[in-house]
Amino acid sequence: MGDDLRFAGDVGIEAILARRLVEPVFQPVVSLVDERPVGFEALARGPEGPFHEAPALFAAAARAGLSSELDWLCAAQAGRAYREAAVPDLALFVNLNPDTLATDPPDELVAAYHELTEEHDVVLEITEQSVMRQPAALMEAVLDARSRTARIALDDIGAEPGSLAAMPLINPDIIKLDRSIIQARTNSWAVSQVVNAVLDEAHRRDAQILAEGIERPEHVAVARSMGATLGQGYLFGRPGPIPDRVRRSEQQLARVTPRTVTHSTPFDVLAPTADVHATSDDMFAAMVSHIENQATQTTSPAILAINVGDGGYEDEARIRHTYLTNRGIDVFVLGTDTPRNLGNRIRGIALSDDDPLIGERTVLFVGSRYGSAAFARRTDGTLHAGTCYNPERVIEAVLTLVNRLAS
After folding, report:
1. What are the coiled-coil residue ranges (predicted)?
2. Residue numbers of the domain that contains 313
3. 247 in a domain, yes or no?
4. Does the pLDDT value for residue 99 go beyond 90?
5. pTM score, whole prediction
6. Backbone dihedral region of 65: left (phi > 0), alpha (psi from -120 to 50 degrees) or beta?
7. Do the strands 371-379 and 382-388 form a parallel or antiparallel pair, or are they unpaired?
8. Dihedral through CA 198, CA 203, CA 207, CA 208, nearest 10?
């Protein structure tokens, strides 16, 4: 493959993929306790020429509609090289876009991936750009990865608001603080908000924090002050070949307890531990209004999931929710005959005729540090409703909807 790369300066992206003219390079991920590696992150390089650096390579693939094909090829090439390097005690960090995880890779790549997870600790890095675009496929891929003993890292926290909102749902083993957070000249309110949310999630779920962009000794001190125990950056090594000898850190990578994704409903999850009582439609509307008023007060990215069942989605509600999307909140609306595109960042999901959600009403509000819900079910003509302010329970309730959030 080296000869091909040497003379492929004018090759287009289609030829690069067809001829597999992509080589992996590896950057160490180190423990900030002893500053020795716990693993290596695989990065991609194209042939010499306009597509050699990763940004140009992936931009060309995106323009050609071949991003997933390039992602899978990079993962396969990285796995091959890592297996040949014979570093069994060091984890391999592999980047995959959520859109890629929603596609079916070639059989040979599936086989290579399975072999790799059997032989090595693999950390699947989920990039933030599309993390909420295909939530159902993404969660399926996350569950599959965990079943194969792979860990999950959520990348670029702080660079993209959506990644912070999705953090509780992804339930990552490792949370990667973006280099912009570590290298910030001042500890602004926005930086503090990100760091506090990450610390809360890490402590609640026993996850680890990894600081990216460590280039100078003072960045190490900043990373440690933000709760990071893992680090990555030019101070510890630039991307390149895997060293012949590596003295592994004694620090072990975290593994969080996976959340169970059930195929029940939010009412089934929340009712057993809540005060559920018969109520009127007007009273339940007031409960919903209280939850949505909380959303208007949030200053950080969040997710609002609404099930209107067979009750319809009114224009007044759409106006309220459009306002929330302008505050950085992703809104999902489930119901019978719900249009797919409701404008702005409001996603509509139509329920099937036999879905038990038709007889329920739910509002679930989840942020990086909070969760609240109002939920109801109509039985024999009577509406039974309750509220919940336990973030973990509300997250579990949101996860019951994930399988319905197909793209």
Report:
1. none
2. 266-404
3. no
4. no
5. 0.86
6. left
7. antiparallel
8. 70
